[in-house]
Batch of 4 targets.
Target 1
Amino acid sequence: MRTMTRTVGALAFAGAATTALTGCGTDAEAEPAGDAAAAATYVDGTYDGPRVENEKGGFQAQVTVEDGAITQVAAIEAGTQDPQSLQINATAIPELAEKVIAAQSADVEAVSGASYTSPGFLESVEGALDQAAG
């Protein structure tokens, strides 16, 4: 519990610092950083991201865009056939896909316990989205 209290305090401080710095700009009509990501639109289609390899195998994502929005994220390849890899990926890939769709971006938090899957898969998603931004 002690660690959680410190983390919450640090997050509260970081939020206060961000809020304080937001008013320091000279451009009164500048958008907050969060709105820029939400405003991103993509060209409709299905895009295969690059194959990304790490110690736990290869990862490749496929992203579908409809009406300028990410509607589906799927794995073309996800790690090795090792039972532990299969178990982790069975949980992590759907969770990462859900986060990407909700955020409309590959800039999402990693899944806890999926320290190889998360960066590998998200890097491939980012590559697919780079193509979709085309």
Note: Residues 92 and 112 are 8 Å apart (CA to CA).
Target 2
Amino acid sequence: MTPLAERLRPQNLDEYIGQQHLVGPGAVLRNMVDSGHITSFILWGPPGVGKTTLAKIIAKRLDVPFYILSAVNSGVKDVREAIDKARRNHYFGSQSPILFIDEIHRFSKSQQDALLAAVETGEVTLIGATTENPSFEVIRPLLSRCQVYLLHSLSADDLQLLANRAINHDTYLVQRHPEIKESEALLRYSGGDARKLLNILDLIAAATPENAPLLVTNEIVVKLLRENPATYDKKGESHYDVISAFIKSIRGSDPDAATYWLARMVEGGEDPQFIARRLVISAAEDIGLANPNALLLANAAFDAVSRIGWPEARIPLAEATIYLATSPKSNSAYLAINAAIEEVKQNPNVPVPLHLRNAPTQLMAQLGYSDGYLYPHDYPNHFVDQQYLPDEIKNHRFWIPADNDHERTATRRLQFFHNENPT
């Protein structure tokens, strides 16, 4: 029998559950679809939140040719063949055929390069789906030609609506007279994943005799899932829960817990580069300036696992994990860039002071560009006191040093340069 998740797949935006920030009344994707024209975009979000379904609904609504490629089993040849088909089916003045690429983060650089020209010329409209951050996984030229839309895990209300729709509208389930007496466990184990919720309902239906009431209770859900244990699900809820516990254990300076969560991911076959990327982020965000060598070691681990893969990758990952967990911690750089970005958002067009601008032409020199700039290397200690921020924010401070040896030393050096009393 066709799985419940496929039987219940929405056919239009009104049936689509969740992601109202994208498809609700007046939302960006809804407006594009209603206008009859869409541009290339990438849907980024966890599994089971409707990425593939949304792409299919859009193609059906626009009534355009729709081609699907999976990055898992498609090569450059498949990409070019799909583009050729789309080119033959593209009629002047009409919406371009849609090329949907599932798990686009798994495409190699050469595969992504093969897409560029067709996307840029509008021969195809690309819709990509990914569970990974496109900033890391999609090449910059392709990313610049696509909008990125973030999809969220489904809320408890969304999941409850989906469960009610399943028991009230699915032809097979309706014949079994189902009843949801308790939904807490069903929603909890679904973890914001629509497919997982529907698979649990499928499991309950399969485990319930045809002549018995089809009931959903907390006890039934827990019992069935314990009898059908999913170990580490690198595409589902565990993927996000375990990596969260891993990073929080590093941040909390607990090397034993961090190593344990690392082992969970190793045994589950998690992508070692995914783990290594998170170590690089943790080194910059959580250890930061308290131990700048942490970022170097994390980058070295990333390079190592990129070359060797499993099972040996566990060793540099463990080394980096323990080093980060036992390092002093500081998030001052993280807070500084966030504060600076917030200032830029509030005042995006503050002019660069003239003395900080280059003057490559005579006209620019006549206008005062670079006039008055003091070259620090011409002064003692390679420092001269001058203003680098625009006048409007010249007294703002974005970096607030944390209390650790490295940042205390940096603070004393700056105080000395500015003729303040060292502390």
Note: The first strand starts at residue 41 and ends at 44.
Target 3
Amino acid sequence: MDFATIHWSATCDACGAAQHRSGTQAVVEDRLRWDEEHVCSGCGSTALVCGDTLPDRLRTRMLAEHGAARLVLSDLPARRLPILRVLRNDGGRTLPEARALLELILGGGHHGTGPEIELLARRLRAVGVAAETVRAPGTLGGS
């Protein structure tokens, strides 16, 4: 789940024709990146925007279309110290926030897009923690 892409249609603001849109979130060189492309079938106008933090409107569409992913730690009981270090460095969490997230992960309640969870799993594997990304129970869609 290194990347996830969604497609949808909208009306072109310039000419009113059908506009084809796509959005992608990907793990690129140990960070998350996203892009969104608009191509009009009528006037041919195109737009491409990109960034680091996935906009909520795209994240919501991505989760609806592909479903959520969750992190599974295979080495239970998990070694907490290296996990807490990764969780603190990933997003600048405080120690209490990292501990709360670890409990959420251990309880199976931490969900996100496939690329979000895969990046966290990679960072954990890099410090020797057995971690994998799996589709969250009860989610729809396919990657």
Note: The chain has two domains: 3-66, 69-135.
Target 4
Amino acid sequence: MKTRIKELRARHELTQEELANKVGVRRETIGFLEKGKYNPSLKLAYKVANTLETTIDELFIFDESDLK
């Protein structure tokens, strides 16, 4: 799964650590999300999207291969 977290985080001038603190996770979790190595819970996806002032659909890019 691809994400736009890094791009939107930069627009809001947030470090991974700052975003992590705002959504209640570790910095490493944000790094894994940005690299597409971690699929977040719906609750975490909502928190990240809300913090970055976007929608889950705009934040996460799903590919058909993600469903297999």
Note: The two ends are 12 Å apart (CA to CA).
